[in-house]
Amino acid sequence: MNRFQKIINRMTPRFIRQSVIKNYQTNSNFKQWFGKTFFGIENSTLETNENIFSVVSRLANTVSSLPFKKYLSYEQQFDESMDKLMYWPNNNQTLDQIFNVMEVSRNTNGNGYALIFRDIRGLFEQLVPFNPNYVEPVLEETTNELWYRVNNNGKTYFFHNSDMIHVRHIAGNGNWKGISPIAVLKNSNDFDKAVRTFSLKEMESIRDSFILKYDTSVDDGKKQAIIDNFKMFYEENGGILIQEPGVTIEEMKRNFVATDMKITEGITRDRIANVYNVPSIFLNSDSSSFSSNEQLMQLFVNMTLTPIVKQYEREFNKKILLKNERVKGYYFKFNLMGLLRGDSDARQKFYHGGIRDGWMVPDEARMLEEMPPRGGKASELWISGDMYPQDMDPSLRKSNNGSNRDVVKED
Questions:
Q1: Rounded to 5, what percent of the chain is helix, strand, coil?
Q2: Where is this region: Disordered (predicted)?
Q3: pLDDT tens-digit profile of 391-408?
Q4: What are the domain boundaries of the chain?
Q5: CA distance linking residue 209 with residue 234, whole number of Å
Q6: Which residues face 252 on adjacent strands?
Q7: Exposure check for the chain: N or C terminus, fewer CB within 10 A?
């Protein structure tokens, strides 16, 4: 945090409001939301579209369940400030819950916001997620710096971008707000809803129908009696029906054909997967294009999760850590390795190769498998030869010719 940011942190909201361009106009009309509980199109779509709910919940749950750690030059750190950030970012939530809320907001509204509260020294004190429908990025007129206008209970507050965690979907040039994926999918959702409504009406309208055939010997009076008898049988949904001589009753087949509905659902599912940039198999599509679970997870991590977690990491590194901490080498990072470990056979080969090639110690493999480190030789790097400590004198290694002679150390 620089001097300017510290000054901002110590000033009152009145000063902040006076520092920001007045009467700033946007396309959004916030006046109608003052003092009201807003229920937007994102929530209504999320609750009525199973495919979108599935993708959003998968992304939010995955991001919030990833290990989020503080490092110093690759060494994990856990101090009092990290304990506060992880378990007491505010009085009601833990950090993983905040990640979950922000990711849901990002994948519905297109933007996820969380306000950083600081103490008098400018250090992190609280982190509170905001409803994105009440937040609007604005630019200050003279300095061209980014601020966030927040409406709450009819009052308007402005916060500098250094105090606001903002993660988003892609935005157009010159626009600070991310594009809502649900807004992009509006036409697809409307079409899918129309097809479902039509199909439901078709299913509800289908009733059993019959054909009554008469011989020429049946007179009109007898025909009417047969019809009345059949109507009574049909309305009472069963009973005894006497089939008169010369009368034949055939059922008229009217089956509901779901082919069109299935094709439409497949198209909608592919569009949702494309917009959220996830493999379509996550929406129960065909999985034949992936030869293994590792290949699928590699694609998911590289193409979907990495760009998402990078946003969170950059925002936290820039706005939670102090400048002198970043200079010393401190940084926050999500651990994605747990998603890439594969099955037991793949993990065994990974650890085996890492240990034998000398870039992983046995204790690191144990910790990745949630087992306690052993210390001692298990904390050292080894190299195959077969398997000696890397700092061992080569003259002490056994020769490869099968004899018990040691290798003669060269001068």
A1: 50, 15, 35
A2: 385-411
A3: 778 777 765 555 454 444
A4: 1-201+258-337, 207-255, 343-411
A5: 10
A6: 209
A7: C
